[in-house]
Amino acid sequence: MELHLPLVLATPLLLCLLAAIAAFVWPWRVVAWPFVLPAMLLAAGCLGLLPCRDEITGPAVRWLRLDAPALLVNAAALPIAAWWARRCERASAAGALMSPCRRSLWLALVAAVGLTPLPLVGIAASPFGLAWRSAMAQRGAMVLTLVAVACWPWPRYVDAVSALALAVFAWSLRPTQRWQVVHRTMVCILAGIAFLRALALL
Amino acid sequence: MNGLVVNGLVALLRCAFVFVLVTLAWLFLVVPAVGFMLGSRPRPLLPAEPVMHADSHIDRHGELWHCHIAGRARDRGYATGRLTAPMMAAHEGELFRTLRELVPWFPVRHAILGLVNLNNRDLGSFFLPDELEAVAGIARGYQDAGDPNASVAPAFGRILGYHALHDVSQYLIDNPLIVAPQVGCSAVAVDAARSADGHVLVGRLFDFEGGRSFDFDKVVYTIAPAPEGDVRRLRHVHVAWGGMHGAVTGMNEAGLWLSVNAGVSDHFAYRGRPLVVAVVRALETCATIDEAVAQLAAQPVFVSESVVIASGRAAPGQPVAVCLELAPGRHRVRAIDAGRLVVTNHFEHPEWADDAANQARRGDGTTTARNARLHELVLATPKHTPLSLATMLRDRRGEGGRDLGFGHRSSINSWIGAHLVVADLTAGVLWVAEPQHGLGRMLAFDANGPRPDLEPLPPADDVALFATAGVHWSERLSAARRLVVARAPTAAAACRELIDTNPQHYEPYALLAAVTQASDPSEAARLLREALARRPAYAAEQRELAARLETLVERGF
C-alpha cells in the first residue's frame, strides 16, 4: 500500500523531530525555523484536506485522524507550543544558555504537539525538573500513556485514555514557581481538549 | 591552535549536517506535502445525483470487456466508475507496482508524486464543466464500488491526474530519477486506392507498459451521449481502460477516427489540457477531419503528440487521413501521401526539421526503424484489408525482413502493446485484438456495440511462440540484467538460456559478453560481434557495444 497521504499528515511531526535533531547537533536557535515554520504551515494546510474527507479512508484517517477537531488542534498547537517552549526556556534558564540536549528535548516537545493524540505532549514534559507530589501517580500516568499508544488504531480510546493520563499527571504536579503553574495549567487545558475530542468521536 | 582547528572543523561538520538535513527535509517532505495538499481537491458537487442510465452496462465479449455508457456526462462518468471499478483497482495496483519498479525508493516516489501533484494543482481548469462532472461521476462511482486506494489520495484528484498520465509520463521519461523504458506506438492508414474493397482503412498498436491489466482488462467503450445544450454529440466507440473519460484510439458514428502517438519537440509546457480528454471531445463533437484538426489545434496541450485523424466519408478531393503533429503553441498537418500514412513517434512535417528534440528522437530512438518497416510492409501488399493491416502491426521483423527474434524494441510489435485496433472507416467497423499484445483474435465493434454478425479476424501466427517462449521474456531478460549487474555466479547460465530461447535477439549476447569479459576476453569479443550483427535496438546501445568491442580489439582479442 502506498501511504503517501499518511506521510503528508505526519510531515509536521517529522519536521519537528528533525528540528530536534538539528538543534542537538547545532545548538543555535535559527536552525529550528527551516523545519518548524513549514511544519506550522503544513499543519494548517492539512485543514484543506477536510473537504476531501469522504473520499479518504484507511490508515490516513484511522492512524492520523483526518477529522476537524484533530486538524484544528494540530494547526493551533504548533504555534502555541513554540511560544510555550520559548517562554518556559526563558523562565527556567534565568539568563543562562540552554544546553543542546535540553533545547532538543524542548523541540521534541514541540514535535509531539504536532502529532495526535495531543495529550501525550503533557507526559513528554515530565522530565523537565518539575516538582511532584506523587511519584506513584506519575508512574500511573506513564502506564496510561503506554496504554494510549497501544490503542493507536482506535482514536477515540486513545483520546479518552490519554486524557485520563494527562489528568493524573496534572494532579501529580506540585508547582513551586510561576512557570510551573503555567505548565500545569496548560496540561489541564490539554486534558480538557482530549476529553472533548474523545466525546466528539463517541 | 590545534584545538581551534579541531573546533572549527567540528563546527563546519555540524553546519554541513544541518544543511543536508534541511535540504533532504524540504526535498522529500515539505515540497511533496505541499504538492499533495494542493493536488488533493474535493470532488465538485454534482448538480443532481448521478444515476446509472438504464442502457449502461458492462459485459464480457470474448476476452474483451465491452462497456456501453449512455446519458449525460455526469451519469456516464458515474456508470464508468461503478461498472469498471474492478478494472480501475487492477490498473491502479499495476501502476503503483510499475512505479515501484521504476522508482524503488519510497521517499523518491513520494517526492515525484508530490511534484506531479504540485504540477497538476490546477489541472481541473483545463477541463470543461461537463468533463469535470464526468470525472466527478467516475470518482463517485468508484467510491460507491469501494475505492481500494483511498488512503493514497482523494479519489477525484487521483482520477483527474490519471487523465493526464499519458502526458505527464512523457516528460517523466527524461527524469534522471526514473529508469523508464523507451516505448513507442505505431499507426498506419491507407486510402481507398490501396484497399481491396475501396474503403479507407486505419490501424494502430498502442504500446504502453503501465502493467498487464491494461492489456488483459482493456475496455471497449461504446458511448451514447445525451444531448447537452446546443452542442452536437456523436455516438462513438473507443478502446481504453477502466475509469477513463478520455480516448487514445476511437471512431465515431460519422466514420471519423482519432488515435494518439507520443511525440517529442522542443516545444514544451508543464501544464495544459490532457490530450486524451481533447480527443474524446473531438470524437463526440466532430464529423470531419477539418473540424477535428481545428478543434485539436486550438487546445492548450502540454506535450507533443501525433494525432492520426482519418475519415471514411471525406469529401472528394480532400485527404482521407492526416497526421496532426501537435505541440504546445505549434502544430503542423501532414496529409496522407501516395495513398499511405505511417505514424510512429516522431514528427515528419518538413517544418520540424530544425527541431532538436525531434531530430534526437529520430536518431536515437526506435521510431525511425519502425517507420521504415511499416512503409516497406504497406508497399509490399498492393491491396490492403483489415487483416493485412493487423498483420503489419503484429510484425516483429526489422527493415528488409531481417530476423530480430522477438521482443526487440525496434520492431513494430515488440510484445509490449496494450491494444491493437484496425478499422474500416467507410464501413464504420473496427476490430479490437484480444490479449496479449495484439496477438489474439480480433472482434468487431461499431459505434453502437459489438458486431457478432461480422467474422472475427484470426489471431497472429505468433500466438503459439508467444505462449511458449515470449510470455515471460521481458521478466527473464530483466532478471538476467540484474544478475549481470550483481555479478552473480548464475548470470552466465541465465544469459545462455536466453540465447537458447531467442537466438536472434542481440541483448543476451551483450549481457553474456559482459559476464565473460574479465575471464575470457576473446569469447567476449566474439559475443559482442554477435550482438552487433543482430542490430541493437537503440543507437546508444550500438555505440556502447561497439566501444566495448573496440577496447577488446585494441587489446588484441
* Strand line-up across the major sheet of chain B: 1-2-5-6-7-8-9-10-11
The CATH topology of the largest domain in chain B is: Penicillin V Acylase, Chain A
Residue stretches of chain A low in confidence (pLDDT < 50, at least 5 long) are none
**Total number of distinct structural domains of chain B:** 3
Largest sheet of chain B: 9 strands, mixed
Structure description:
The complex is a heterodimer of chains A (202) and B (557). With 202 residues, chain A is mostly helical. Chain A folds into 2 domains: 116 residues, no CATH class; 86 residues. Chain A starts with a helix and ends with a helix. The relative contact order of chain A is 0.12. By secondary structure, chain B is α+β, with helices and mostly antiparallel strands. Chain B is built from 19 helices and 16 strands. Chain B has a 9-stranded mixed sheet with strand order 1-2-5-6-7-8-9-10-11, covered by helices on one side. Chain B has a 7-stranded antiparallel sheet with strand order 12-3-4-13-14-15-16. In chain B, helix 9 packs antiparallel against helix 10, helix 15 runs parallel beside helix 17 and helix 17 packs antiparallel against helix 18. Chain B starts with a helix and ends with a helix. The relative contact order of chain B is 0.09. The interface between A and B is large, with 35 and 36 residues.
Structure summarized in a few sentences:
The complex is a heterodimer of chains A (202) and B (557). With 202 residues, chain A is an all-alpha fold. Chain A has 9 helices and no strands.
Task: Give the helices and strands, then pairings.
The complex is a heterodimer of chains A (202) and B (557).
Chain A: H1 4-25, H2 33-45, H3 59-62, H4 68-93, H5 100-113, H6 120-124, H7 135-150, H8 155-172, H9 178-201
Helix pairs in contact in A: 1-2, 1-5, 2-4, 4-5, 4-9, 7-8, 8-9
Chain B: H1 2-39, E1 57-61, E2 64-71, H2 73-83, H3 85-102, H4 106-119, H5 129-144, H6 155-162, H7 165-172, E3 186-190, E4 201-207, H8 213-216, E5 219-225, E6 236-240, E7 249-252, E8 256-262, H9 275-285, H10 289-297, E9 305-311, E10 321-327, E11 330-335, E12 340-343, H11 356-364, H12 367-380, H13 386-393, E13 417-424, E14 429-433, E15 442-446, E16 449-450, H14 463-470, H15 473-485, H16 491-501, H17 507-516, H18 521-533, H19 539-554
Parallel strand pairs in B: 2-5
Antiparallel strand pairs in B: 1-2, 3-4, 3-12, 4-13, 5-6, 6-7, 7-8, 8-9, 9-10, 10-11, 13-14, 14-15, 15-16
Helix pairs in contact in B: 1-4, 2-5, 5-6, 9-10, 15-16, 15-17, 16-17, 17-18, 18-19
